[in-house]
Structure formats: structure tokens, C-alpha cells
Write a structure and sequence with these properties.
Layout (H helix, E strand, L loop, with lengths): L1 E3 L5 E3 L16 E4 L3 E5 L2 E6 L2 E5 L6 E4 L4 E2 L1 H9 L3 E5 L6 E4 L8 H11 L1 H14 L11 H23 L18 H23 L16 H8 L2 H13 L6 H16 L1 H12 L38
Parallel strand pairs: 3-7, 4-8, 7-9
Antiparallel strand pairs: 1-2, 4-5, 5-6, 9-10
Length: 320
């Protein structure tokens, strides 16, 4: 958005966030390594030893900054204005170290998540919804949570067996050896690398939409509990086909092949759009972001009071 100044120069104005593309409408994510990001007008340019590219920030949902990346203050501001989430990650986007601001400027979704999480009945309802999403045939209403977990264990066991038979990859058990990575089997390395990528995307979706990654419903007690909840909705569909396919393919650099294969698979599935819609569905609908320049409300036991207002009146302490 621009307007001419009296001197004829172009003045950039802060863009209305209501006009910006949402996370669900984004084209996906971009991963960079050994790159310097700098602002160029309202855009951002990435300078790499092999060349320069203009980052399509207008419809980019997540920018993953890997090893060797640096970003200028002005570039961060431009990315923030377009609602693009910044994530500082390990090599290949496998581990997430820190995150920047997402597109939302409202706490309404976080408040709704916290209320659903804090009450056992509403939390149990969300948990059952999450499990039901994994079973297209549905789940009987009279199953206990323990019985549902049993069915989920059987579903995962059958999924591993199915992909093992389809790709001719021997499968014994799921093992994640963070402290002894080299001794893990190739298929376990492939699944772990794929899960890490899916966690990164789920984390980005949660932050971009204004939810808390710590308030998990199925998982609990970890700062990324809700990330694990969301990622588990898609693991069988997203990670396993790529992990088993690449584990069955001869060649080196298995983890890189899994990451690039997942990137293409996620794009085909329009996973960003699905994650956004599923989060809104699971956590009880959505509200539009408030005007970003408007003051926040004031909490009151009888209902929020309008913020940015002097309540002194003639009698300090009254609200008239």
C-alpha cells in the first residue's frame, strides 16, 4: 500500500492485516541455509554464495532459517508485517530452536484453547475428536479412553506392517535412539527424520494461528505437547509412505531424501490448509482478528470492559 508524498516520493504504509493471506492460504514453507536475508523495498532478498533470490513473502507461510543464516532487522519487520512465521531450525529443518511472530494478532484462539484444556470434560471431548480423525470408519461412542488407545496402537501396528509389505522393508519395532543415532536401522532413521519435519510444520501452524504448543490435549507435560497432538493426526498418511519408500531406495543421504520427499508430499496434500482447518475445527471455531491498532479489552468477572477508555469519571473507581 503506497501513497505519494508531497515531494513525489513513495511512502510505504503498514499493511492492513485483514488483507493479508492467511496461513491456510499460504503456498508452503521455504528452508534456507548459509543465506543473508535483507529487506528490499517491501520484499526480502536472500543472498547465498551461489546467487540471490527474491523471497516470495506475500504468500509464504513459514520461513525456516537453517545453519549459517542471518537476517536483518528490517527483513524481520517485513516478514512480520506479512504474517510469515520465522523459525530457527537445525540442518534440514529437523530441529526447532526458536520461533518468531506468526500472523495472528489476537489472543482469542489461545484463550479458547486454554479454556478447553483446563476443563476435564471439554478436554476429553477434544481428545476423542482427535482420535476419531484417525479412524475414517469412526469410533463407537461407548469406548473408554483406554480402549481408544488400544485401537490406536493396533492402527499404528497395522500401518507399519502394511507399508513394510508394500516396500519390502523389514520392520521390527519403532526405535528412536537420539543418543545412539548411528545404530538405528535405516527405516527407523527415515521415520524419525520425517516425524521431525512434520513436528516443525505442526509447530509453525500452531504458532501462526495463535495457539500454544504447550497446551496439549492427548499429550501433556511437555512444551511441545500440542505439537505432538497435531502431528499424530497426519503421521500415517504423511510420513510413513515417504519414509518406507526412501528406505527401500538404494543410495546415500537417506535423511535428506526423506525431507525433500516429504516437502513434495505435503505440498500435494495441501497440508498447510488442512492443518489450519483442522485446528479451527478441533478448538471450537474461529473469530476474526481485531483491528491491530485497537487497544485490548480489560478483564472483568462480569465480562470484558472496553480498553483504552478512562474510567475515572467523577467518582474514581466507578465505570460511568
Amino acid at each position: 500500500m503506497t501513497q505519494p508524498s508531497p515531494q513525489g516520493a513513495i511512502i510505504w504504509q503498514r499493511q492492513n492485516l485483514r488483507e493479508l493471506p492467511k496461513f491456510r492460504d499460504g503456498t508452503g514453507y521455504l528452508y534456507l541455509e548459509h543465506t543473508r536475508l535483507e529487506q528490499d523495498g517491501r520484499g526480502v532478498r536472500a543472498y547465498h554464495p551461489e546467487g540471490m533470490l527474491t523471497v516470495p513473502i506475500a504468500n509464504l507461510s513459514v520461513l525456516l532459517l537453517g545453519p549459517g543464516c542471518s537476517v536483518s532487522h528490517e527483513a524481520v519487520k517485513a516478514l512480520s508485517d506479512t504474517g510469515c512465521s520465522l523459525l530457527w531450525v537445525g540442518e534440514g529443518g529437523v530441529r526447532l530452536y526458536a520461533s518468531g511472530l506468526g500472523e495472528t494478532r489476537s489472543a482469542a484462539r489461545l484463550h479458547r484453547q486454554a479454556m478447553l484444556w483446563a476443563h476435564p470434560q471439554s478436554r476429553l471431548k477434544v481428545v476423542r475428536q482427535m482420535y476419531a480423525m484417525r479412524f475414517p470408519e469412526g469410533l463407537p461412542d461407548d469406548l473408554t479412553l483406554q480402549q481408544i488407545r488400544g485401537r490406536e496402537g493396533a492402527r499404528m501396528r497395522d500401518a507399519y506392517a502394511r507399508y513394510s509389505a508394500a516396500h519390502g522393508v523389514k520392520w521390527d519395532a519403532r526405535q528412536y535412539r537420539q543418543q545412539d543415532w548411528d545404530r538405528a536401522t535405516p527405516i527407523n532413521k527415515a521415520v524419525s527424520a520425517g516425524n521431525a519435519c512434520l513436528y516443525g510444520l505442526a509447530h509453525a501452524a500452531i504458532l501462526s494461528m495463535g495457539y500454544s504448543p504447550a497446551l496439549g490435549f492427548v499429550h501433556t507435560g511437555k512444551l511441545l505437547s500440542f505439537v505432538y497432538d497435531v502431528a499424530d493426526l497426519y503421521k500415517v498418511e504423511v510420513v510413513l509412505p515417504v519414509a518406507f519408500r526412501e528406505a527401500a531406495t538404494p543410495g546415500d543421504d537417506l535423511e535428506r531424501r526423506v525431507r525433500t520427499g516429504l516437502r513434495d508430499h505435503m505440498t500435494r496434500l495441501r497440508l498447510l490448509e488442512r492443518m489450519a482447518a483442522d485446528l479451527v475445527h478441533l478448538l471450537g471455531g474461529d473469530d476474526p482478528d481485531p483491528e491491530p491498532s485497537a487497544p485490548g479489552d480489560l478483564w472483568d468477572p462480569g465480562g470484558n470492559a472496553t480498553g483504552g477508555k478512562n474510567y475515572a469519571g467523577d467518582d474514581p473507581g466507578s465505570r460511568s
